[in-house]
Amino acid sequence: MAADDLPIGVAVTLEPLVARVLAPNASAYTCTGTQTHIVGIADVAVIDPGPADPAHHAALLRAIGGRPVRAILITHHHRDHSPGARRLAEDTGAPIVGCAPIVVHEAGEQADAAFDADYAPDRVLTEGDRITGEGWTLEAIATPGHTTNHLAFALAETKALFSGDHVMGWATSVVSPPDGDMGAYMASLDKLLQRDDRVYYPGHGEAVERPQRLVRGMLGHRKQREGQILRLLAGGPRTVAGLVERMYVGIDPRLHGAAGRSSLAHLIDLERRGLVRQEGDVWASI
Q: Domain Metallo-beta-lactamase: where (predicted)?
């Protein structure tokens, strides 16, 4: 099934232990919408319940079908992933667990989804922490980069990884400073490359059936962007907007902001490594 054919509000079985419910919040940054995953048969965990949308909440309750909910897991608290947790917790009695809450002091335009300011987990998970139910085990995998608190969740029984926004099935993730960190993002991709997960179920886009191949491609793409930035700056100082104009020819204009944020993340990472410097709004090679 193609990503643009995914049904909204309908539980789709991906494998015996995993179902997916698509939220009706499609946009330039969310593909067809946010995908909530339900793990388990007799009892369940809900991963990323999505926005605070009444129709999506009702769809999740239908998919759960009265089964006990052991936990509501959050990969990161962007507004398209976590706000639905509060009402779902009220209706099911399940705890909200997952990424740590953070306070982001925005500097300039934020191109990707805004943070959920009311996110307050009952339990913060860190690397290796596990949530279990009847016949299923979910392990937290720290994958910072898209956000500093981003987690993925590995389903031990089937080698499936719920990758949130770190690896998506339709586009590369936006890495937007001040919270997004390109160096951490690249390290997290390399970390996933060392794993043997069978399939990724992302927050947006279709399932990734050959995840190691995709992750290698994503690392190569980011390194190519880095090289492109260095070559352009070797020709003279440029603003972020000037870099985007040269590097992202032909993309949807609605995505220029996101491209600028990721370019800035590359520049900050290159500055830390002593390869570029900032002079006001202009960046230059060293």
A: 32-204
Write out pLDDT tens, residues 156-192. 999 999 999 999 988 888 899 988 999 999 999 999 9
User: Structure pTM?
Assistant: 0.92
Q: Both 244 and 113 in a single domain?
A: no
CATH number of the domain encompassing residue 264: 1.10.10.10
- E strand spans, 6-159: 12-15, 18-22, 35-39, 44-47, 69-74, 96-98, 123-124, 130-133, 136-142, 151-155
The set of residues, in sequence order, having a beta carbon less than 8 Å from that of 79 and lying 6+ positions away, is 51, 113, 114, 115, 116
Tell me how crowded residue 230 is: count the other CB atoms within 10 A of its CB: 14
As for how many domains the chain has, the answer is: 2
Over residues 249-268, the pLDDT tens digits come to 888 888 888 899 999 999 99
What do you get for the CA distance between the two ends of the chain, in Å? 48
